[in-house]
Automatic annotation (TrEMBL):
This protein's name: Programmed cell death protein 2
Domain of life of the source: Eukaryota
Gene: PDCD2
Organism: Marmota marmota marmota (Alpine marmot)
Glycosyltransferase found in the keyword field: no
MYND-type domain location: 104-141
Pfam families cross-referenced by the UniProt entry: PDCD2_C, zf-MYND
Intracellular or extracellular location(s): Nucleus
Amino acid sequence: KEHQSDAGGNAALPGPAALGCARCGRPLAFLLQVYAPLPGRADAFHRCLFLFCCREPPCCAGLRVFRNQLPRKNEFYSYEPPSENPSPETESVCLQLRSGAHLCRVCGCLGPKTCSRCHQAHYCSKEHQTLDWRLGHKQACTQDHLDHTVPDHNFLFPEFEIVIETEEEIVPEVVEKEEDFEITGSMGKESEELDSMAKHESREDNIFQKFKAQIALEPEQILRYGRGTEPIWISGENIPQEEDIPNCPCGAKRIFEFQVMPQLLNHLKADRLGKSVDWGILAVFTCAENCSLGTGYTEEFVWKQDVTDTP
């Protein structure tokens, strides 16, 4: 799983302190990971981007993205790719390796906190310990042998593998230049306001039409990857300027790498708890130099663009 792209479920990730919502402070939910090694970079033979979101009402707004990379020769993965048909001996070793770091029963992230009664259940935070207690651990806690079957806490999204294919180049039928509308009538402030409104609506519609034309070949696509290219915005509102994208802590600029499409929300059933996370486009920007910071996680930048209702 570490060498593929996924949406939903859980993953091996940074510690609880790094995975708190910057707005409300509650634990973030794993949204997706993109396996994106960089050709020609020995230090990024294994490279993955992890995106998290807050799905805790009434916030449902926090977003964080992390980058992790390793050279081909490292202490975690074998130099050669694993066999698609592992031998029984390999499967036995995999079973032994399951007893690793303690993971949170709710979100699957590192779980340094332990239930003080049974000392068998582990959590990333007090919030998730409380949630698990309410959804069944209160009864299971007193049992001699804790049932490690984890209940559905309605916290994780359903898990899917993301299949990425190269897109054929298409020429959108939408005229790219903005149309100039002439407003006839009396001159003055009212005419100028009408002219401004017409041009704004025209630009908004033009951007949305280009968005639809670009995804026409695969309307259900959930992710677009193109490091160093430009995002396809869904609206003319809230498009970031260069100064809106912060530089990497190493000093290098950040460049666009991938965007998450609104179609993903349908697959993740994000609204099953009522109010939940929502977006038009999530655009992820990463260090242009792809700085190497050892075996740790580097936080990158995500820009959220909502869908704008045009009158």
